[in-house]
From TrEMBL:
Highest taxon of the lineage: Bacteria
Annotated protein name in UniProt: IDEAL domain-containing protein
Organism: Geobacillus icigianus
């Protein structure tokens, strides 16, 4: 199986902060012409990127064979990543059903490439959040993890 480039897409024009101070907006994954969960997916973008940053940091340092779930908050969707080698991760894009899991797409990618895509999306979002002068504990945590991951590169 060929290695694929994966893009974490965040549309900063779509974001808004709800009354609970959660930032919601478009966040989805793009691999070639495949979108997951779908193009334009709206979800809790700050929380999700925080989770994904922690996962990619752990995957880099964990043993081969370790599996992590890259969750979305809304809906039955998640991406499952299994460390195949020191530099490669196998990805399954999954829809939970009431009695089973449906794998809708699979691919391999470089751990470093997935990490960079998560970092790029996070940086883009953080720049927008700062320009809007939005603050919350989740935003501070996202920024803290982003800075740590940047320093590890």
């Amino acid at each position: 199986m060929l290695l694929k480039d994966i893009e974490v897409v965040v549309n900063t024009n779509s974001i808004f902060m709800n009354t609970s101070r959660n930032v919601i907006g478009e966040i989805y994954l793009k691999i070639g012409d495949f979108f997951f969960p779908e193009e334009g997916w709206n979800d809790f973008v700050v929380v999700i990127l925080g989770w994904w940053q922690k996962n990619i940091m752990n995957i880099k340092n964990d043993r081969i064979g370790t599996v992590y779930e890259f969750d979305f908050m809304d809906g039955p969707w998640f991406m499952k990543g299994k460390k195949i080698s020191e530099h490669t991760i196998g990805l399954e894009f999954v829809r939970n059903k009431s009695d089973s899991q449906q794998i809708v797409f699979t691919c391999l990618c470089q751990v470093a490439q997935l990490q960079q895509s998560i970092l790029n999306a996070t940086e883009k979002l953080l720049i927008e959040l700062k320009s809007r002068k939005w603050h919350s504990d989740d935003i501070e945590e996202l920024d803290k993890i982003w800075r740590l991951l940047q320093s590890l590169n």
